[in-house]
Amino acid sequence: MVVGVLALQGSFNEHIAVLKRLGVKGVEVRKAEQLQNVNSLIIPGGESTTMAKLAEYHNLFPALREFVKMGKPVWGTCAGLIFLADRATGQKTGGQELVGGLDCTVHRNFFGSQIQSFEADLSVPDIAAKEGGPPIFRGVFIRAPAILDVGPGVEVLANIPVSSDKYASSDLSLQGQKENSDSGKEVIVAVRQGNLLATAFHPELTADNRWHTYFLKMTSDVGEGALASVSTPVDDLTSNEQAKNDLPIYQ
């Protein structure tokens, strides 16, 4: 198995490092023809507008859209989530081009600026059921987006509580958001739709590899080959004792 990682800007090196720990070859992808040599693709976090301009410069969007339509697994983290969304709000003036394919609306900068980056424990029962380990994942959110609504074919994998004040201050009209008795509302931060996986946070910046092993096993789910077994070295992690990383700064 060869996993491509879009290497225009952002945290592509961190994803490749995780893949290497799991014994899987990760290769940098910067040109359309390189997509022909990979089984699946990770679109990493970074600065989404910059990534979109570079992708447009290298004429990558048609090839990326074709890759998605072929049913090959694609995982977008943070900026990658924005790339995969069919609809996006909170864009800079003029907006940015999207790959699309994921039936959702994403707010590009829902959680605020760089200095408002944070970590939070997320309930991930579906990931724990399939990949083992604790039912909590420590999510690292760096100038992160959020998913405002999803279509009927989209499976929600993680939510995060958000105060009602956050909605008011963002002047958002959110559809179908889940009520939470303790914190007012919850916003969606991880989803799957067929061959597409998207997270608003950065699993590659933690010691918990379960999102990567989940993504690798998606290959067999969509008929692109089988992954016999992928070990997940999180047995020694508990919901209260997960490895934490200092938040890096991506310009």
TrEMBL record:
The reaction(s) catalysed by this protein are: L-glutamine + H2O = L-glutamate + NH4(+)
- Entries under CDD domains matching the protein: GATase1_PB (cd01749)
Name one process (GO BP) from the record. pyridoxine metabolic process
The UniProt GO MF terms for this protein read: glutaminase activity; lyase activity
* Record-listed E.C. numbers: 3.5.1.2
* The protein's enzyme class: hydrolase
Which residues are annotated as active site?
A: C78 (nucleophile), H202 (charge relay system), E204 (charge relay system)
Q: Where is the composition biased (Polar residues)?
A: 230-242
Task: Tell whether Transcription is among the UniProt keywords.
Answer: no
Q: Where is this region: Disordered?
A: 230-251
UniProt keyword annotations, A-Z:
Glutamine amidotransferase, Hydrolase, Lyase
User: Which residues participate in L-glutamine binding?
Assistant: G46, E47, S48, R108, I142, R143
Can you list the GO cellular component terms from the UniProt entry? cytosol; glutaminase complex
The record's similarity note reads: Belongs to the glutaminase PdxT/SNO family.
What this protein is called in its record is: glutaminase
